[in-house]
Amino acid sequence: MTHDQLAIIGIGAAWAGSVGVLGLAVAYAARHRSFRWQIGVVGVTAVLAVVAGVVGTARAMFLSNHDLSVVLWVVVVAGVVAIAVSAIVGMAFAMWSRSIRDDAKRFGDSGHFEARSRGPAELQQISDELAMTAERLRESRAREQRLEESRRELVSWVSHDLRSPLAALRAMTEALEDGLADDPSRYHRQIRAEVDRMVRMVDDLFELSRIHAGVLALNLQPVALGDVVSEALAGADPVARAGGVRLGGRVDDGLFVTADPAELSRVVSNLLMNAIRHTPADGVVEVTGRAVDDGIELSVTDGCGGLSSEDMARVFDVAWQGSAARTPAADDPRTPVAGRGAGLGLAIVKGIVEAHRGRVAVANHDPGCRFVVTLPT
Ligand SMILES: Nc1ncnc2c1ncn2[C@@H]1O[C@H](COP(=O)(O)OP(=O)(O)OP(=O)(O)O)[C@@H](O)[C@H]1O
Ligand SMILES: [Mg+2]
């Protein structure tokens, strides 16, 4: 490179660089204004940088006066074109961003956002991101609606389920009070049974509200699954015997799981009680426990005759009960004391299992269905 060329580059850099710094300062000052300003500043800076470079080199005698005026005219014309182009691009950009803003506004009003491809990649990314947010929002709204529905259902069923035993209690106590009961001890037993049932229901509701509020304090410790299952089997044995249901199955030796022992036995006994209740006389209920890749698996298999896929999708919902469960045979010993449950058992099972980072599922398994709980060890 010749000495002259080096000098031209140096002079050009100094003059154009000063204009560039000035342009940056103006762009910074206008940073909160419309994007059109930024593009305009870039265009004008580019033109002025060329003008400054040319004037600088002319002053150093590298250009004659005549050449200088020719170059300046060319630069002015080119500058007009550049500024016109930047104005058009700026306008297009403003239009795209306005259209996204309008869509976002509509999204706020209606919850619907349609990702249309428009403008440069960055704007498209914003638009895609908004569309995904809209989708997530829609899903969470639907979830909330389902929850709200099940809560409303729960309140209505609970009030319904409390009203009938309360009415029965009032009738029985009135009969006792008036001395009209011909067999008072039977009334006493029945009153006791109704009260037990209501205590159980209130206890279940309390448990469920703790699960839903996320304040279930787990007292985690190593628990022998075999012990929990045999305790639950012993507790359920009288009910199974009364219903002519055989209890069986086996839990592999030495299976330990980190869990809250009280909550875990609640899970097992809820599943077991359901299984016994839905198994006909002479049927079998089996409980098995084994180690699997990602923890331990506990399964309860019954003889319920299978569940439809709609029922399977709803069994874990709060307050949901199969059609038969709302009108049980009152004298069936397998229905809980004095009547029926409230549809809370499986929702509690699911809540407890998930609080232990486990999962629960149901599938049909001839001649009934099988509930499978998987817990991490
Ligand atoms: N082992 C099972 N076999 C067939 N159906 C079942 C079984 N377990 C539950 N279900 C169905 O799922 C419904 C909900 O069960 P869940 O345990 O939550 O409530 P529930 O047993 O009716 O009342 P609760 O458990 O509160 O006393 C039951 O009403 C029944 O229709
Ligand atoms: Mg139940």
UniProtKB/TrEMBL annotation:
InterPro entries: HATPase_C_sf, HATPase_dom, His_kinase_dom, HisK_dim/P_dom, HisK_dim/P_sf, Sensor_HK_Regulatory, Sig_transdc_His_kin-like_C
EC number: 2.7.13.3
Catalyzed reactions per annotation: ATP + protein L-histidine = ADP + protein N-phospho-L-histidine
Entry-linked SMART domains: HATPase_c, HisKA
Main location: membrane
Record keyword Cell wall biogenesis/degradation present: no
Enzyme class: transferase
Cellular localization per UniProt: Cell membrane
PROSITE patterns, alphabetized: HIS_KIN
Entry-linked PANTHER family: HISTIDINE KINASE 1 (PTHR43711:SF1), TWO-COMPONENT HISTIDINE KINASE (PTHR43711)
Protein name as annotated: histidine kinase
Originating species: Nocardioides islandensis
